[in-house]
Amino acid sequence: MRTLLAAAALVSLVSYSAEAQTKPDFSGAWKMDPTRSESAAQAEPIGPVTLVITQTPAELKVETTGSTGTTAATYKLDGSKITVAAGTSSTHWDGAKLVTDSVLDVNGATVTATETRTLTAGGNEMLVEKTVVVQHGYPDTLKGTPNYVAGKDVFVKVTR
After folding, report:
1. So what's the pLDDT on residue 138?
2. CA–CA distance, 115 with 2 (Å, rounded to integer)
3. How far is C-alpha 115 from the chain's CA centre?
């Protein structure tokens, strides 16, 4: 019985340690690589984009600077919702991936957006996969027209 309890405790400890180690730190300054990023190749390119990320165990602050200026958002890492300019967002961990789900009001239409951040093995590149869905509510008139777009952007860590 003691051996069984000791084994269960060891498995629990190893599982907890593995889970804690799967949460990477995204802190740092990041510059979009336009040659490998889909946002840079859209119909109206978004121009150079830099991110400054500050991460604590409880929060992730993202400052985004692009051709239209600088915006900032601070996300709670426990999955609780925050208010953003056009709606709400929540962020949660999916293993080593950091997932941000947003529900936004864009020109009167509900838009859902998901951003999934991952780091490459060396930690010097961050991949941001985005999916944006417009909930237009009238599928009969737009048969065959996709209501979503998805893409991936690559950011390279820079020394400040």
Report:
1. 59
2. 46
3. 4
The alpha carbons of the chain give a radius of gyration, in whole angstroms, of 19
β-strands 109-119, 28-32: how paired? unpaired
pTM score of the predicted model:
0.77
CA dist 101 to 35, 48, 92, 149, 151, Å?
26, 24, 9, 15, 15
Sketch the domain layout of the chain as residue ranges.
25-158
Residues in the chain with pLDDT values less than 70: 1-21, 40-46, 136-145, 160
- The DSSP result for 69-132, as a single string, is EEEEEEEETTS--EEETTEEEEEEEETTEEEEEEEEEETTEEEEEEEEEEE-TTSSEEEEEEEE
Alpha carbons 127 and 118: distance in angstroms, whole number: 5
Residue 59: per-residue pLDDT: 96
> Which homologous superfamily is 25-158 in?
Calycin beta-barrel core domain (2.40.128.20)
Task: Give me the residues paired with residue 109 across strands.
Answer: 106
Looking at the chain, how many residues does it have?
160
pLDDT tens readout for residues 8-54 = 444 444 444 444 557 999 999 999 998 898 876 565 656 789 999 99
